[in-house]
Amino acid sequence: MSERPEQNPALAACLTLAASGFAAGTTLLAKALGTGVLGPEMHALQISHGRFLFALMAIGLSVLVLRPQFTRPNLKLHVGRSALGWGGVTFMFAAAAFIPLSDATAISFLNPVFGMMLAIPLLGEKVGKWRWLAAIVALIGATILTRPGAGSIQAGALLALGSALLLGAELIFIKLLAGREGPLQVLLINNLIGLCIASFAVLFVWQMPTPAQWAALAGIGVLMAMAQACFVNAMARADASFVAPFFYAALVFAALYDAVIFGVVPDAISIIGAVIILTGAALLAWREGMARIKLSDASDGA
């Protein structure tokens, strides 16, 4: 179990596509819960609570079956990461009730852009002109999706931007945790702390879910756990620069789910904004990949 899996780019691509489909599915179910399709409209805080509750159950079962070796965790980093992750997920679920899933998903691809920008003051990283160009391009796309010319900026788009900012900040803590602890340990602790935070927050908005809502909440948690498991395994079988672009398929899944279930078809503004954001995100992923290659070559030549 401790050996690195054999490199398999084709399998990594398939796993990443599956992860993107599962991740988009969680937003679909959150929209169904938040818009009253499955019963009384459910608050985003309660949807987030269900996500952490059932995800923890799924990951806990995996831990019991696989029995990985645990090391001493860095609780400060875990608490910071989990608090930001809980906030980001909650904002995203709230956004899904107000704007098309394709818009919310496209804006979520700003996560690495915000993570890059925050890494400058927090981690002391240096950012070159190409990364800044990628960030500017992606932010232009996000500005388009807020539709400022429509009279007022959409509240849902602002919630999605807040989600991207919080999840981008979470990336800083993920970088600090990288290589220190095993993936299952990180996921287990993350969801455990997230559930503790969500359990306190949900006290103020709790309502008894209907059977259909319980099923949707369980679906969100299980789909999120499956998405995380697929993505972690994909990252182990191919370079991050190869894997990352395949996750952009989440935008296609989100648009497809929205069209089939809610009859929402992306308009021209949604398509233009999404394409611009994806261009910026892809450019950033490419530069990250080039930086890793240069670093690897330098290490080999040392």
Description:
This protein is mainly α and 302 residues long. Helix content is 76%, strand content 0%. It has 12 helices and no strands. Helix 1 packs antiparallel against helix 9, helix 4 runs parallel beside helix 7 and helix 5 packs across helix 6. It is globular and about 55 Å long. The two termini are 31 Å apart. The mean pLDDT is 86.
Task: Name a few traits of the molecule.
302 residues; mainly alpha
Q: Mean pLDDT, nearest integer?
A: 86
Total strands:
0
How many angstroms does the end-to-end distance come to?
A: 31 Å
Weakly predicted, low-confidence segments: none
Apparent shape: globular
Which radius of gyration do the C-alpha atoms yield? 19 Å
Class derived from helix and strand content:
mainly alpha
Please tally the helical runs, counting DSSP H or I stretches of 4 or more residues: 12
How much strand content do the residues show? under 5%
The biggest beta sheet is recorded as: none
**What fraction, in percent, of the residue positions are helical?**
over 70%
**What sequence of helices (H) and strands (E) makes up the elements?**
HHHHHHHHHHHH
